[in-house]
Amino acid sequence: MATDIIMPQLGESVAEGTVVKWFIRPGGMIQKDQALVEVETEKVDLDIPSPVTGVLSEIIIPEGGTVPVGTLLARIESTPPSDVINRVGGVIVRPSQPVSDGDGRYSPAVRQLATAHGLDLSHVKGTGTGGRVTKKDVQEFIAETGGLAASPPAGTELSMGEEVRPLTQMRRTIAERMVSSRRTSAHVTTFFEADFSGVAKFRDTLRQSSGQSVTYLPFVIRAVTRAIRDLPVLNSSWREDGIVIKKDIHLGIATALDEGLLVPVVRHADRKGLTLLAKEVADLAERARTKKLNPEEVQGGTFTITNHGGFGSLFSTPIIHQPQTAILGVGAIQKRPMVIDDAIAIRTMGYLSLSFDHRVIDGATADQFMAKVRDYLEQSQWEPIL
């Protein structure tokens, strides 16, 4: 029985993807959930696992091929097909067909590098399958020609001491989406201060009693989901015919990568306890950094949290992740002197920011939401760890 492997939808509005690397060659055995192929899109690079155990009978799109979402990439047979020749030491199948020439032979990353450096790709020797030009080929060509490889784009000049750092596809996409978000939504940001002293005490007690180390983020997630249940309009999106209220709460957690930012999604975050949230957030972040996320894990978010305080930042005005209507920023959580009942006390404090779409949410509603988030964080008793 044959199983088709297709180019997945790796993010909302992504139309195409590039096959970067096949981990299994034609005729090779593969186990279910074993990494099969690395795929690159304008938003993310991911390793796609095999959905079944079997033999990779045919690779249709070779490494370097850029194709639309839904394109057949390969086939896996649970039993060897009739045209497979069995030999001692392995299985040999018919060779895959190369893709046609033209712009489609260059991946988004290759085209981006060429554009940034003013390169004519016909001058770059390809080492990929069928002589295709890979990203590594372009990078080596640039290095051999002194870093620029060609004169800068028309209308620009470089002074001494300057260099052009090529835009990665992820960086270009982030730039485009951030500018698009600012054009789309009426951005407004409100700031609140929250006392995390109770959370800090609970974390210390938990660490001493069970050895568990839980960050502040799961507590913020719990407070946010409870506030969303009180004010569902924060979990919505704008449409010309009305405001779409999302019944499910799927929280995107902004994760910093070396090359940019990715937002994996914690699904049904309101149904999960602190321990489960902590484990899931840590797992998603680790797999985001190692390109092990599944395609559906970066889709469908309804509200986003960004923890910019991890690098020491106190305040931020984050940009809304479309088509959502709000994003919460968490600043550095640190001890500060505070006035409590006309006396100076040392408290564990943190600033929270909410950027919201003023087309959907009024300032009063945004402030009510933030007040609820703050109050839930400052509650004296936390529910048992689940």
UniProtKB/TrEMBL annotation:
<comment type="subunit">
    <text>Forms a 24-polypeptide structural core with octahedral symmetry.</text>
</comment>
<feature type="domain" description="Peripheral subunit-binding (PSBD)">
    <location>
        <begin position="105"/>
        <end position="142"/>
    </location>
</feature>
<protein>
    <recommendedName>
        <fullName>Dihydrolipoamide acetyltransferase component of pyruvate dehydrogenase complex</fullName>
        <ecNumber>2.3.1.-</ecNumber>
    </recommendedName>
</protein>
<keyword id="KW-0450">Lipoyl</keyword>
<dbReference type="InterPro" id="IPR000089">
    <property type="entry name" value="Biotin_lipoyl"/>
</dbReference>
<dbReference type="GO" id="GO:0031405">
    <property type="term" value="F:lipoic acid binding"/>
</dbReference>
<dbReference type="InterPro" id="IPR001078">
    <property type="entry name" value="2-oxoacid_DH_actylTfrase"/>
</dbReference>
<comment type="similarity">
    <text>Belongs to the 2-oxoacid dehydrogenase family.</text>
</comment>
<dbReference type="InterPro" id="IPR004167">
    <property type="entry name" value="PSBD"/>
</dbReference>
<dbReference type="InterPro" id="IPR023213">
    <property type="entry name" value="CAT-like_dom_sf"/>
</dbReference>
<dbReference type="InterPro" id="IPR011053">
    <property type="entry name" value="Single_hybrid_motif"/>
</dbReference>
<feature type="domain" description="Lipoyl-binding">
    <location>
        <begin position="2"/>
        <end position="77"/>
    </location>
</feature>
<keyword id="KW-0808">Transferase</keyword>
<dbReference type="InterPro" id="IPR050743">
    <property type="entry name" value="2-oxoacid_DH_E2_comp"/>
</dbReference>
<dbReference type="GO" id="GO:0016407">
    <property type="term" value="F:acetyltransferase activity"/>
</dbReference>
<dbReference type="InterPro" id="IPR003016">
    <property type="entry name" value="2-oxoA_DH_lipoyl-BS"/>
</dbReference>
<dbReference type="Pfam" id="PF00198">
    <property type="entry name" value="2-oxoacid_dh"/>
</dbReference>
<dbReference type="Pfam" id="PF00364">
    <property type="entry name" value="Biotin_lipoyl"/>
</dbReference>
<dbReference type="InterPro" id="IPR036625">
    <property type="entry name" value="E3-bd_dom_sf"/>
</dbReference>
<keyword id="KW-0012">Acyltransferase</keyword>
<dbReference type="Pfam" id="PF02817">
    <property type="entry name" value="E3_binding"/>
</dbReference>
<dbReference type="GO" id="GO:0005737">
    <property type="term" value="C:cytoplasm"/>
</dbReference>
